[in-house]
Amino acid sequence: MSFPKRELRRAYDRDAVGYDERFAELQRVKYAALLDEVELDPGALVLDLGGGSGLLLAALAERVSLERPPLLLDLSAGMLREARGRRCRRAQADAESLPLRSGCVDIAFAVTSLLGTRSQVLSALLEARRVLRAGGTLAFSLLTSETWEGLSDDLAACGLELRAGPLGCGQDTGYVVGVL
Ligand SMILES: C[S@@+](CC[C@H](N)C(=O)[O-])C[C@H]1O[C@@H](n2cnc3c(N)ncnc32)[C@H](O)[C@@H]1O
């Protein structure tokens, strides 16, 4: 059975206002754990996948001054609206079908945003791999309760090499993977 994305989108649209106040502290722990493991090049094109209100981008800007505005993609228009004022290019998109050409992204993040069934998460990981350049990096976290045994094998089957993880990321477990 596939995860009802329309309902998910509506839920995030409904709860978008005030998201930062409610979740900034919780998410900040995850960003720190992932960012500590990633090499940040000022020239990189960065994608925040399921980036919502763009909280990660603020944490990222504390570590690196990016030459190009990062891309912020999310299913929920309401969440993207909360990101107005942040330096980024925003677009509504589904992680399983990204409006980006293959190999154009250097670093992608997906923090607590790969939601749904295992097959939907794997499909989103494959799509992230498609848009990343060879040697590119994906740093992501899943709710620990939604990880599964054999995840490392599934990552390898997606052509993603585990570089760091599993990482303690608060309520999430984090992974940093590279595109082979
Ligand atoms: C828990 S919030 C996390 C937001 C952000 N990554 C953060 O760290 O604050 C989950 C986000 O994932 C987005 N999302 C869920 N499924 C998605 C999908 N298939 N494609 C794109 N965005 C998705 C939701 O709209 C929501 O903004």
How many structural units, i.e. domains?
Answer: 1
Strand content of the residues, in percent? 25-35%
Count the beta strands. Answer: 7
Spatial order of the strands in the main sheet?
A: 3-2-1-4-5-7-6
Class based on secondary structure composition and strand pairing: alpha/beta
Q: Specify the helix fraction band.
A: 25-40%
For the termini, the CA-CA separation is 31 Å
Gross geometry? globular
Enumerate the distinct ligands. Answer: S-adenosylmethionine
The run of helices and strands is HHEHEHEEHEHEE
User: Which architecture name does CATH use?
Assistant: 3-Layer(aba) Sandwich
Low-confidence parts = none
CATH topology: Rossmann fold
Mean pLDDT, to the nearest integer, reads 97
Secondary structure elements and pairings:
Layout: H1 5-15, H2 19-35, E1 46-49, H3 55-61, E2 71-74, H4 77-81, E3 89-92, E4 105-111, H5 118-131, E5 132-143, H6 151-157, E6 160-169, E7 172-179
Parallel strand pairs: 1-2, 1-4, 2-3, 4-5
Antiparallel strand pairs: 5-7, 6-7
The structure holds S-adenosylmethionine.
